[in-house]
Amino acid sequence: MTGDGDVCQDPDVNAIPMILDCDPGHDDAIAIIAAAHHAELLGITTVAGNAPLERTTFNACVVRDLLGDPSLTVHSGAARPLVAPPRPAAHIHGESGLDGADLPEPVRGADGDDAVSFIIETCRAREGTWLVPIGPFTNVAMALRAAPDLGRRLAGISVMGGGTFGNRTACAEFNIWADPHAADIVFGYGGPLVMAPLDLTFQLQATAPRIEAVRDVGGVLAPVLADLLTFFSGTYLGRNEGIDGAPVHDPCAVLALTHPHLFERAPRHVVVETYGEHTAGMTVIDRRRLRERPPANTDVLVSLDADAVWQLIVDAIASRA
Predict the structure, then answer these.
(1) How would you write the pLDDT of the chain (321 residues) with one tens digit per residue?
(2) Would you say residue 202 lies in a domain?
(3) Is-catalytic flag, 269?
(4) One of 37, 249, 261, 278 is an active-site residue; which one?
(5) What is the DSSP track for 109-144?
(6) Strands 40-46 and 17-22, how do they pair?
């Protein structure tokens, strides 16, 4: 972990092995493409979140096909949170989870229906893998609970979720709010943890010029993604004040690993509220200066070079043109 306000300076971009656990989702689709280009993507696991599991798995398979990488496997996972009922986000992502573009039927469906076993077996076979949950954390929590050895085999976990404010309630971000009990397990697992909160992701917005930069790439993939980002930004612009486009949350959890020099971080102690009447799903980030404060368990990302990060996204898309 780095100290308060430190910027990671290592610009070496290695093929970091990772499993992307997601609920596509417009920004999930961008994260998949970023991970496929900038990391060693060992597989995609899906969870119910932005849409029901059947649809998030369908969407992941569509994105895999658009990438043109038939070797990339998709494994469906949890259809509901550990305790709470599923609560999809159709008001943001549309009923399909990826409204805004005409998506083809996938060439093939999921390669497996046991995401938890895939996570455990892959991480045991390839120690030093990063888990990157960018939807509700249900699959990852179940894997940590089922395999007590998993935590020490991982390089770490990089999550998109939480923040000092919420987007689903006044204090809860969607991924944490959707399954706070799973998030509580992940934040307490004891190993390296990187957190891309709303405070960070709202700094990376799909503005009109940035969407056009994607469209200008050409080919098959870029126009589809530009249409998806246009729909995604439209939902945010219609519901929020003071923004210029949709925050593109999920790629931050990927690119903070592959390009850490573009992100500033601070070590914090973070816990999840699971039962509060008004605060369920809140990430409580301890920013006190007290000497007796709990030790940090999370590297909280606090800022990024938005133009440089967006260029990484454009580069990943262009690589598939």
Answers:
(1) 334 444 443 334 469 999 999 999 999 999 999 999 999 999 999 999 999 999 999 999 999 999 999 999 999 999 999 998 888 877 788 788 899 888 889 999 999 999 999 999 999 999 999 999 999 999 999 999 999 999 999 999 999 999 999 999 999 999 999 999 999 999 999 999 999 999 999 999 999 999 999 999 999 999 999 999 999 999 999 999 999 999 999 999 999 999 999 999 999 999 999 999 999 999 999 999 999 999 999 999 999 999 999 999 999 999 997
(2) yes
(3) no
(4) 249
(5) --SBS-HHHHHHHHHHHSTTPEEEE-S-SHHHHHHH
(6) parallel
Q: How many angstroms from the chain centroid is the CA of residue 213?
A: 22
Q: CA–CA separation, 318 vs 219, rounded Å?
A: 8
Which CATH number do you get for residue 191? Answer: 3.90.245.10
- Whether 8 maps to a domain, the answer reads no
Domain membership of residue 89 as a residue range = 17-318
pTM value? 0.94
